[in-house]
Amino acid sequence: MSYRPSKKSTFLSTASGIALTYALISLLWIYLSDSLLLALGIDLLSLSKLQTWKGSAFVFCTAMVLFFLLRNAIKRALYGEALFRKVVETIPTGIWVVDREGNVVDCNSAAHGLLQEFGIQAYNDIRGYAEIQGWWSDNGQPVHPDEWGISRSLSRGETCLREKIDIACTDGVRRTVLYSSLPLKSENGAITGAMALVQDITEKRKTDEVLRRFRFSIEQASEAIFWINEEGRFLFVNDQACHSLGYSASELESLHLWDIDPDFPAERWAEQWERMKSDHKQVFETRHQRKDGRIFPVEVSASQCLFNNEENHVAFVRDITIRKEYEKELEHQSNHDALTGLANRVLLDDRIQQAIVHAERAQRNTAVFLLDLDRFKVINDSLGHSQGDAVLLAVAERLSACISPGDTLSRLGGDEFAIVMTHVNHPADARIMAQKILNAFEQPFPLGNRELRITTSIGASLYPRDGEQSEDLLRHADAAMYQAKKQGGNGFQFCSEEMDTRAHKALELEGDLRQALQLGSFVLHYQPKVKIASGKIDGCEALVRWNHPDKGMISPDDFIPLAEETGLIIALGEWVLREACRQFKAWQAQGLPPIKIAVNLSARQFLQSDFVESIQTILSEFDIDPHWLDLELTESMVMEDPDRIAKLLAELKQIGFALSLDDFGTGYSSLNYLRRFPIDCLKIDRSFILDVASDATAASVANSVIGIAHSLGIHAIAEGVETREQYAFLAMCECDSVQGYLFSKPLPANDLAALLANPTPFKPTT
Fold it and tell me: What is the DSSP letter of 533?
């Protein structure tokens, strides 16, 4: 650029300094040199010659000094101008300079390039081109180049900053420029021209517009969007993410992913990060937790991406609560009857298959019942379909009251129902269920102002006796139901005569059981528990026996399940507790040493709401310290509701009862629950003792159970000990006590009293 006011001012300043220096040196030379010559006493002729030489020398020396000074100044000026030019040329912003009259006198390469983009070959043509094409300001008004603020800078010395102009180029593309203008002034403040700075921001404006639209789209998205770094922290969240989780953006950015995802703990993040790096994208379902604690299902579409040279995890999250509820409703509709809400045929088949799997694993039976209402067509035709539906709803309600938890009640269509009974230890259990259903139909069904007497015909099949597939069991149950209808209805029929005979015997046995409770036909036998270390009796287990007047002594395996099913076990259990306390007092009256008596509790008896009060009443009646009563519960029993059982056991323990866990190893208890239960004694099931001397696995299990008991400070006792080899193994494992036929079978009270009276240590009898 040839027009450089700032550079000219600098050069003039340097020249003034040189002139002043030259004048000072000249004056000093003239006066000092003449004075020196006069002081030396030189004559006038010689003085005249010396002054001539002196003047010539002065001119030469000062000329040389002036030469070097001016050369350096010019060098510096030229270097500064070249540097300034280089800097100006490298600036991406267009710069042009106008004189006082507004004529463009110079511009840099960037300005020249911009002008060429506008279709202007020479910068002096800018006025005419602008007038022809029409340039527009940011507010849509036409703008003449003289109005770019340059005129204001020239006339009033104002600086105009960051104005936008929309320019139409020759290629048809409209471009947006950002410009500023400032006045150029001389040293005395006079305006000599103006400088304009112009920058093409067309692409930047487009980028900004895209970013604004993108940001608006992100914030208006119905999905929550998260950016997450490798540490699991939120880098960015949109408004929907804040709304769905109830946090502010700043709160979320201070959290980790696992703070909002209960299904995604911190220890899984590193694994998820590596999996995302390999898969790049994943779609999955999980759950998120709001700030208020509410948990809701979400679908996550996550991708791995590179941002600012850093790998990030971006996730699009959709709340699928409504979808899940809809799917749940569809699933319910596809598996349940529309009228009654009971399982339909599809779900029934699945439940039968599940019951078969569990029955096979537990070596139990499963019963399938088919029920058909007798003469329902007459009711439906005479009263109408709406009243018929009301009857079916009432029947479904009564049948629901008959089944146990884990059983399945289904409506197959019309007036036909089905029941899957999962826990069937004996065929008699199925007969008992059928009788319960028939009894439920004895009461009339209220229907408006009238009462209807309705009966049903029931057929049943039993797995595995009558089939091992759902279709076979249903087919045989249907055949049995048909037989029940042929016999007049209001009855039950097994699919085989043999099973039906057994079921009838079970019904007879139930009647005898009720009578036995009234007549007091039960007795208690007591099996001693022997302490291995001393060989002495340290307790006994009370075992109920039924002395039937016609059938003799009946095994508990035959009548205890029946008592459980019919509910008679509650009365029987109370009798056992009372009889054990009575016998304890009787032995004390005989002067025998007191021992703990273990009494088995049933699930029904134990979970009675007044169980604790009833047992305390019995203790008060016989004035017995609860320390001498050992309550035995089975492992499967306590695991039905471990939290409730833990509270109940703690209450019993506080009263003073001893507590034992029977049949340990046959259920599903965990060490965590075992630690929570205040158990005094752990009884190893006889199934693990049977083969300890010959089977390494059985030996390992028994040894482990003993170790678990001792580690928890619990007394370990093995039941079912029948051989010396078993006893030797248990002694080697430091088992505390044993119980079994090797020492004694269950004995009547008088026989056990004789053993208690003899202090001789016990010795194996075989």
Answer: T
Cα distance between residue 229 and residue 214, in whole Å: 21
Give the residue-averaged pLDDT of 304-310.
Answer: 72
Sheet-wide strand order for 295-307: 234-237, 224-228, 310-319, 295-307, 281-289
Q: Burial letters for 217-233: b for 16+ Cβ neighbours within 10 Å, e otherwise?
A: eeeeeebbbbbbeeebe
Distance CA 711, CA 672 (A): 13
Rounded distance, CA 378 to CA 489, Å? 15
SS3 289: strand
What's the mean pLDDT in 441-451? Answer: 86
Instruction: Please state the φ and ψ torsions of residue 741, each to the nearest 5 degrees.
Output: -70, -15
- Examine the pLDDT at 641 and tell me if it is beyond 80: no
One-letter amino acid of 527: Q
Give me the residue label for tokens 């900053």: 161
Question: Nearest-CA neighbor of 436 among 608, 343, 561, 565?
Answer: 565
Report residue 29 as tokens.
């030379």
pLDDT in tens, 530-539: 999 888 898 9
Q: Which of 529, 441, 489 is nearest to 740 (CA)?
A: 529
Question: Measured in whole angstroms, how far is the alpha carbon of residue 250 from the centre of its chain?
Answer: 23
Instruction: Transcribe 551-574 into DSSP letters.
Output: TEEEPHHHHHHHHHHHTTHHHHHH
DSSP string computed for 459-472: EEEEETTT-SSHHH
* Cα–Cα dist 542/581, whole Å: 10
Burial class (CB in 10 A: 0-12, 13-18, 19+), 670: exposed
Rounded CA separation 436/432 (Å): 6
Please give the single-letter amino acid code of residue 16. S
394 in helix, strand or coil?
Answer: helix
Q: Are 127 and 142 in contact (CB under 8 A)?
A: no
CA distance 257 to 92: 44
Please give the model's pTM, rounded to 2 decimal places.
0.43
Query: Helices in 363-469 by DSSP H: which ranges?
Result: 376-383, 385-402, 427-440
Check whether 243 has a pLDDT greater than 80.
Answer: yes
Distance separating alpha carbons of residues 208 and 192, to the nearest angstrom: 38
**Residues 529 and 739: beta-carbon distance below 8 Å:** yes
Question: Is the torsion defined by CA of 313, 318, 324, 325 positive or negative?
Answer: positive
Report helix, strand and coil shares of the chain as percent, to nearest 5: 50, 25, 25
What's the CA gap between 411 and 345, in Å, rounded?
7
Q: Which two tokens stand for residue 538?
A: 């340290």
Question: CA 92, CA 731: separation in Å to the nearest integer?
Answer: 96
Euclidean distance between CA atoms 580 and 55, whole angstroms:
150
pLDDT band at 192 (very low <50, low <70, confident <90, very high): confident
Angle between helices 427-440 and 385-402 (to 10 degrees): 140
Q: Structure tokens of 344?
A: 């339909």
